[in-house]
Design a protein that fits this description.
alpha/beta, binds oxa(dethia)-CoA, Peroxisomal Thiolase, Chain A, domain 1, 23% strand, globular, single chain, 5-stranded mixed sheet
């Protein structure tokens, strides 16, 4: 087994065409643009149409990343999709996406760890490349959370959106991977979960009536944990990578709530311009939020060789994590 470096050679993102504004939500929920804006920072979110599923969004983001990298799907050695809204219970959404893109007989699997999906996926994918197992990996964070939203529950319906972001990791002499910190605590899944048709509560008519297949969240408690864990994980990767906070070029956090991001950034002493926030446009897209934000800043030409990026997330599991990454063109 050889040990090499890894870098990102292509990025892409995609959001469904249908936009749902705060004013749209006011039409059927007891809520207001003012409440949603001040409590979450969200103005709009994109919701998939009835005939769009997660693999469709993932394939669109991955296609954009392939074009960005100047690569064909068959040149990718492994496909990973981070999602908690797979097309099917099985097979894995990554299998569907790889075939859709035209990749033949390539390994493909999903990572299901909710909003931390991209962080876990990046850690796994970077490890597979750096240890010499694969030369190139397509990692996609993709969600259609609108499909598991209780549209009549104002405390969750306003928060979540659909989207996908993709990165292509490639073996390299330079090494972008600086450090990772991952954590999970499964002692209280009910803080943020969708029981779906899981083995604990298989779907029957009674379960459907109780809406167990939809997202349930205890918002205020999740909020507090999110702030603390995101701060701790960011500090952990900085310590491992022997970097000072001032050396971070961009903090790219999971977009759950602007107040969570602001609180963590304030504690970490990160000035506004260094924190990437696109929550007003997309809401919370779970595993897709970080790769979408990364794709936007890279494609806007804002990220330069040598820049230090810190990705950090918190979500269902509970789960959390951060990755410190030095950008190499
Ligand atoms: O992505 C994974 C991680 N996710 C998170 O970390 C999300 C964390 N949680 C949050 O972002 C926030 O807790 C929420 C945005 C979900 C809620 O904001 P909050 O400031 O914690 O509000 P709250 O739940 O404490 O509710 C305050 C009030 C309540 O009314 P009363 O009881 O004070 O009369 C709610 O019923 O706001 C009410 N409320 C709303 N009002 C208008 C809740 N949702 C809405 C709404 N519109 N959409």
């Amino acid at each position: 087994m050889s040990f090499t470096g890894v870098k990102i050679v292509g990025v892409g993102h995609y959001a469904p065409a249908r936009v749902v504004t705060n004013h749209d939500l006011e039409q059927w929920l007891d809520t207001s643009d003012e409440w949603i804006t001040t409590r979450t920072g969200m103005k709009r979110r994109h919701w998939a149409s009835n005939d769009e599923a997660t693999s469709d969004l993932a394939a669109a983001a991955a296609s954009a990343a392939l074009v960005h990298a100047g690569l064909q799907a068959q040149q990718i050695d492994c496909f990973i999709v981070a999602t908690v809204t797979p097309d099917y219970y099985f097979p894995a959404t990554a299998c569907l996406v790889a075939s859709r893109l035209g990749a033949v007989d390539k390994p493909a699997f999903d990572v299901a760890i909710a909003c931390s999906g991209f962080i876990y996926g990046l850690t796994v994918a970077a490890g597979l490349v750096r240890s010499g197992v694969y030369r190139r990996i397509m990692l996609i964070g993709a969600e259609t959370l609108s499909k598991i939203l209780d549209k009549d529950d104002r405390s969750t319906a306003i928060l979540f959106g659909d989207g996908a972001g993709a990165v292509i990791l490639e073996r390299s002499d330079e090494d972008s991977f600086l450090a990772a910190d991952l954590g999970a605590d499964g002692s209280r899944p009910e803080l943020l979960f969708a029981q779906g048709s899981g083995a604990r509560r298989p779907l029957d008519h009674a379960a459907l009536d109780e809406k167990v297949h939809l997202i349930h969240m205890q918002g205020p408690e999740t909020f507090k944990l999110a702030v603390n864990r995101m701060i701790e994980s960011t500090e952990a990767v900085l310590e491992q990578a022997k970097l000072a906070k001032s050396e971070i070029t961009f903090l790219i956090p999971h977009q759950a709530n602007k107040r969570i991001i602001d609180a963590a950034a304030r504690y970490l002493g990160m000035p506004n311009g260094k924190v990437v926030i696109n929550i007003a446009e997309y809401g919370n897209t779970s595993a897709a939020s970080i790769p979408m934000a990364l794709s936007e800043v890279v494609r806007a030409g804002l990220v330069k060789s040598g820049d230090v990026l810190v990705f950090v997330a918190f979500g269902g599991g509970l789960s959390w994590g951060a990755v410190a990454w030095r950008w190499h063109q």
